[in-house]
Write a structure and sequence with these properties.
CATH architecture of the largest domain: 2-Layer Sandwich
Organism: Carassius auratus
Order of helices and strands: HEEEEEHEEEEHHEEEEEEEEEH
Strand content: 35-45%
Shape: elongated
Keywords: Glycoprotein, Membrane, Transmembrane, Transmembrane helix
CATH topology of the largest domain: Murine Class I Major Histocompatibility Complex, H2-DB, Chain A, domain 1
GO biological process, one term: immune response
Strand order of the largest sheet: 5-4-3-2-6-7-8-9
Protein name: Major histocompatibility complex class I-related gene protein-like
Helix content: 25-40%
Number of strands: 18
Number of helices: 5
Radius of gyration: 34 Å
Distance between the termini: 43 Å
InterPro entries: Ig-like_dom, Ig-like_dom_sf, Ig-like_fold, Ig_C1-set, MHC_class-I_related, MHC_I-like_Ag-recog, MHC_I-like_Ag-recog_sf, MHC_I/II-like_Ag-recog
């Protein structure tokens, strides 16, 4: 008896099995594209700042506008009233001991704008804008290293203009238009000494800044149906009640960060704390364990907040699958009965 031939049916089965394996591999690759490899957890840095911001707009023969505000850690703590010609502090107790507004009155600032406008605009009909930011900032690393910086910077017509070097008490020009102004301001030694003292006071205050509202975030994770795609869910991570402001949030699957996340940005709460919301679309029919990893300066490296969301098929989805399975089975049975009845009729007619 000769050698047996390979049955063609087995070849088809092998091909089908191989194709199914490829499909599974392709689906896995698609899911892998939605992830970012896990990174080592790094504690968040702590940042604080105090700055006063000035803006003046001048248009010859029309009007002059002036606005000034004081901001500490993204919260407005003071503003200048043009009607009363005074600074008005807010009632936030945490910054009540912050340094007052810097030297240089509203009239002095507008005079500088007028002088610069006359020097740069020979025909004197173009509008001009003068801006100033003065203050100090502190950055504290997770290891405890503290970095301090003081600044007094000017911008003119949307370009960097000059900044003050507090150590040398000299002005540094950053624009060709600032050469003449730099020479004039360098000669104002009394004003520069006063400015140097103010920036030093600012740094002393920010370095001892001890805000009583240091709070860890409260985190929760929930899901909602995507309005534009019923096969998707919007998985949402909400952190609220935290202070200081800086925070980092990531939604993960199997400890891998998911891509295409949407963030609300950090927003203030009424009590002076902050909140942030991050969301991402996930497959409603995919079983998996998701988590929201939150890093904040009040949390240690060993204890980040990790809130878990376990995605399983809903009872509604399971019930729908069962109903569809019963319907398909019933249709097959009816089809087979019809075929059997037709065959029976043909046999009876013979």
């Amino acid at each position: 008896m000769g050698p047996q031939r390979k049955i063609q049916g087995l070849d088809k089965s092998d091909a089908i099995a191989e194709r199914e394996t490829e499909c599974v591999r392709e689906r896995a690759n698609v899911r892998e594209k939605d992830r970012v490899r896990p990174k080592e957890i790094e504690p968040a840095r702590e940042n604080h700042f105090l700055r006063y911001e000035f803006t003046a707009f001048f248009k010859p023969s029309t009007f002059t506008a002036f606005k000034a505000v004081g901001v500490c850690d993204h919260r407005q703590i003071a503003h200048y009233s043009n009607d009363e010609r005074v600074w008005i502090r807010s009632s936030v107790n945490n910054w009540i001991n912050a340094p007052e507004a810097p030297p240089g009155s509203r009239d002095w600032f507008l005079h500088q704008l007028n002088s610069l406008s006359n020097c740069t605009d020979s025909q004197r009909f173009e509008p001009h804008v003068l801006q100033r930011v003065i203050g100090c900032e502190l950055e504290k690393s997770p290891e405890g290293t503290v970095s301090l910086r003081a600044f007094d910077e000017y911008g003119f017509d949307g370009e960097d203009f000059m900044f003050f070097n507090s150590e040398t008490q000299q002005w540094i020009d950053k624009n060709l238009k600032a050469k003449e102004t730099k020479m004039k301001w360098d000669q104002q030694t009394g004003h520069n000494e006063h400015l140097h003292h103010y920036l030093k006071t600012c740094m002393n205050w920010i370095s001892s800044f001890n805000n009583t509202k240091k709070n860890s975030p409260v985190v929760r994770v929930f899901a909602r149906k995507a309005p534009d795609d019923h096969s998707k869910l919007n998985l949402i991570c909400l952190a609220t009640g935290f202070y200081p402001r800086d925070i980092e949030m990531n939604i993960r699957l199997d400890e891998s960060v998911l891509v295409n996340q949407t963030s609300s940005g950090i927003r203030p709460n009424d009590d002076g704390s902050f909140q942030m919301r991050t969301s991402v679309k996930i497959d409603a029919n995919h079983n998996g364990i998701y988590d929201c990893l939150v890093k904040h300066s009040n949390l240690t490296q060993a204890q980040p907040i990790k809130t878990v969301y376990h995605q399983i098929l809903s009872a509604e989805s399971q019930q729908w699958s069962l109903i569809m399975g019963i319907k398909v089975t019933a249709a097959v049975v009816i089809f087979l009965l019809l075929i059997g009845y037709c065959i029976y009729r043909k046999i009876q007619m013979l």
